[in-house]
Amino acid sequence: KAGVTQTPRYLIKTRGQQVTLSCSPISGHRSVSWYQQTPGQGLQFLFEYFSETQRNKGNFPGRFSGRQFSNSRSEMNVSTLELGDSALYLCASSWRGELEAFFGQGTRLTVV
Amino acid sequence: SQELEQSPQSLIVQEGKNLTINCTSSKTLYGLYWYKQKYGEGLIFLMMLQKGGEEKSHEKITAKLDEKKQQSSLHITASQPSHAGIYLCGAELSGGSNYKLTFGKGTLLTVNP
């Protein structure tokens, strides 16, 4: 059974650009959550999707957005990148939103 | 201030030694989750605790939940190099289902052979 797949693994972007990260959950899982991890703030919740609906959103500016497709794959987008957006972005999948979730390997975003 | 405080921030132990990591919440705990992370990689779920006094074990790792103190501890017996990594506690701090974990900043464990 394939695990949670995040693409790309590494990304370097310039300030002001936008970026899209992808997350493919475990087959059959319908909930996808996104977290941002930085050395200063630790792991912080971005948003959670279930059956294409956002059920919860963390305290991040509107530049951070996401969506989920009918096959449960999810994308998150960050527009107008800032240096502080450099982080490891992790997604987690579960059947219906259980918090004992399966995490992907993450996408390491560096903004220069 | 941090809603979930983990201590210590880092720990270096000799292989074979026991160790304890603590996680204290400033808010009511509705569920406490322990995860392990290898540097720069994803999280691996270890254990979930939901009831006060609950204790769970998996191999040489035991976690307990003290509801009154709003605290959980993770104890590793006879540590091995394979236990090295970052241990993170995550908590449900809201009574309703909001599908969100609040995490502590993690404890970096180094086990020297």
Describe the structure.
- The complex is a heterodimer of chains A (112) and B (113).
- Chain A has 112 residues and is an all-beta fold.
- Chain A is 0% helix and 54% strand.
- In chain A, strands 2, 4, 5, 6, 9, 10 and 11 form a seven-stranded mixed sheet that branches.
- Chain B has 113 residues and is mostly beta strands.
- Chain B is built from no helices and eleven strands.
- In chain B, β4 and β5 form a beta hairpin.
- Chains A and B meet through β4, β5, β9 and β10 of A and β4, β5, β9 and β10 of B.
Fold blueprint:
The complex is a heterodimer of chains A (112) and B (113).
Chain A: E1 5-7, E2 10-13, E3 19-24, E4 31-38, E5 42-50, E6 53-57, E7 64-68, E8 74-78, E9 87-94, E10 102-103, E11 107-111
Parallel strand pairs in A: 2-11
Antiparallel strand pairs in A: 1-3, 3-8, 4-5, 4-9, 5-6, 7-8, 9-10, 9-11
Chain B: E1 4-7, E2 10-14, E3 19-25, E4 31-37, E5 43-49, E6 55-58, E7 61-66, E8 71-76, E9 85-92, E10 102-103, E11 107-112
Parallel strand pairs in B: 2-11
Antiparallel strand pairs in B: 1-3, 3-8, 4-5, 4-9, 6-7, 7-8, 9-10, 9-11
Order of helices and strands of chain A: EEEEEEEEEEE
List how many beta strands of chain A DSSP finds.
11
Please estimate the helix content of chain A: under 10%
* Most extensive interface between two protein chains, with residue counts: A-B, 26 and 23 residues
Taking all Cα atoms into account, the compactness measure Rg of chain B is 13 Å
Short note summarizing the structure:
Chain A is built from no helices and 11 strands. Chain A is mainly beta.
List keywords for this structure.
heterodimer, A: 112 residues, mainly beta, 7-stranded mixed beta sheet, B: 113 residues, 6-stranded mixed beta sheet, 5-stranded antiparallel beta sheet, 11 strands
